[in-house]
Amino acid sequence: MAEAEDSNKPLFAGLSDISISEDIPVEGDISVPVGSQNADNDFSTLDEPVKDTILRDLRAVGQKFVHVMYPKKSSALLRDWDLWGPLLLCVTLALMLQGGSADSEEDGRPQFAEVFVIIWFGSVIITLNSKLLGGTISFFQSLCVLGYCILPLTVAMIVCRIVLLGGSGVVSFAVRLIVVTASFSWSTFASTAFLADSQPTNRKALVVYPVFLFYFVIGWMILTFSPSH
Amino acid sequence: MNPSLTKLFLFFLHVCIHRALKSVMANSDFLLQFQEFEDNQDFTQNTQESTTVTIDDPIKSRKQRNAAGTDFEGEEDDPLENSDKTKLLSGERKSAPFWTFEYYQTLFDVDTHQVKSRILGSVVPWPRRNFVEVYLRSNPDLYGPFWICATLVFAIAISGNISSFLRHHGQPKYKYVPDFGKVTMAATAIYSYALLVPLALWGFLTWRNRTIASLVSYSFMQIVCVYGYSLSIYIPAVIVWIIPSEGLRWCSIAVAMCLSGSVLVMTFWPAIREDKPRIIIAILSTIVILHVLLAVGCKACFFSTYETDPSADNNEPLKAGSTLSFTKAN
Question: This protein's superkingdom (chain B) (predicted)?
């Protein structure tokens, strides 16, 4: 053993100082703590009723919606990210924006897949952009924030559809314009409030501009939505 | 199969494997010697000689110009110069291989004020300032070209929709339909212009550089950067196109093309100055013509200029319009 160590000395020089002699007995005790089974029950969610699981997730999503509507610099959105909310909002928005398939009048409206792809692809590109510029936020946290901040635009879409039920004249256009502008600036402001802290200081504008462009394009799609007669 | 052919094939295979094994053994011996980091840096530096050549010349010529007292930039330049100097002095910048994330992070290594000054520099052509030399200075970025192209795509789509809406506003039979296909068409056209033309130009310049030793040689990223930033003047021009006045549209196209075309020409002039006159003229005219084609093509496709036919009963006037405008232009 010692000879082998000597011949390896130049490469493993430090290890030769540590020698384990066979005289020291290995001591200690191995015990399986039985009492921790009760503590495990708090973390294991396999045994609870399904209603509890669903309600807990819905409550988390709802809490994040409240955070988006009143954006303060809290880190709850970032810490416990989830993608249920963005999925829900994206599907709702795409369903409301899509054009019919066989009707020739609605040829120019975006299809469901187009809206879906724009929202998710756009979020991924913005996240990559902020990471490449040196942001410290993680990939899914950024996707979560961008997805949740679509909430004001979804609310604006619902309002626009209700306004369009009353006719599509100049007045309704003006009302829709105001609503969409307000919600788009709210979205941009909310996502900036959550994302801006994780960016290096002299690049904040570089990160905010793509977010602005993203919500502007979604707002444009909502504003130019024309209903089928 | 022919037995002698199979023997020949097996012989070649054996030789190739033998050679491959030999090189692998050589490399692994080299790696086991615990001097990895310096050796790897030398290895990567050897493959990037083309970029290291360009670092020296712009700085030397800038220092000569500073000494001659014709420094136009003055105060704006000092923070840029300090940050760039420290980056250059700290060693090789792009030492990461191109399949890692860090390589692309070096391509996004710009600050807000740098992006703003690069956009301004690409819009205003200054006779003695070379865009690559003055603004890029061995720090080309991909942020500018990518987001300027994205903004231009959406600006074209949105202004095209607005202008067709305004044009058909009074007609009873017209129902406004936002044409979503414009976005994909515009995106394809603009991104391929911003990527393929620099690729072709870089390939051509590299090929010419073998025969004609030129002081200045640009890397691919620098050419992409120049082209990307030169498209930034088209964004206000496209927004002006919403106003449905033909004279104003052609005027704004002409102004935009002159400004960005002259920036491009002045950027590439030092790289081809020592070449034969016919080749110089050919390259410069190709650059200008492609630039003009992009602008006029976008206008023809997205901003149809036909006279409306009120008795037409079709529901898709946009598609009919673009074909009509092509026939009118011919």
Answer: Eukaryota
Task: Say if the Cβ atoms of B108 and A132 lie within 8 Å.
Answer: yes
Q: How far apart are CA A204 and CA A198, in angstroms?
A: 9
Q: How far is CA B5 from the centre of its chain?
A: 50
User: Is B130 inside a domain boundary?
Assistant: yes
pLDDT tens digit at each of 330 positions of chain B: 566 777 777 776 766 676 656 655 555 555 555 544 544 444 444 444 444 444 444 444 444 444 443 433 333 444 444 444 444 444 345 567 778 877 788 888 888 888 888 888 888 877 777 767 777 777 888 888 999 999 999 888 888 888 877 777 766 656 666 666 777 888 888 899 989 998 998 888 888 888 776 667 788 888 888 888 888 889 998 888 888 888 888 888 889 888 888 888 888 887 777 778 888 888 888 888 888 888 888 888 776 654 333 333 333 344 434 444 444 444
**A108 with B179: Cβ contact below 8 A:** yes
Q: Are residues B201 and B272 in the same domain?
A: yes
Alpha-carbon distance B179 to B183, whole Å?
A: 8
Is B267 within 8 Å of B129 (Cβ atoms)? no
Q: Which residue has the tokens 């205003």?
A: B124
Q: What is the least distance, in Å, from the CA of A25 to any CA of chain B?
A: 37
Token duo for residue A203: 């690049």
pTM attached to this predicted model:
0.68
Are B151 and A109 in contact (CB < 8 Å)? Answer: no
Q: Choose the mutation target among A129, A224, A226 for the interface with B, i.e. most B CBs under 10 Å.
A: A224
Are B211 and B267 in the same domain?
A: yes
Q: How far apart are CA A135 and CA A8, in angstroms?
A: 45
Do B136 and B80 lie in one domain? The reply is: no
Cα B239 to chain centroid distance, Å, stands at 22
Q: B108 to chain A: which residues are within 8 Å by CB?
A: 129, 132-134
In a domain, B219, yes or no: yes
In a domain, A60, yes or no: no
The residue segments making up the domain with residue B30 are 2-92
Contacts of B111 in chain A (CB under 8 A): 202-203, 206
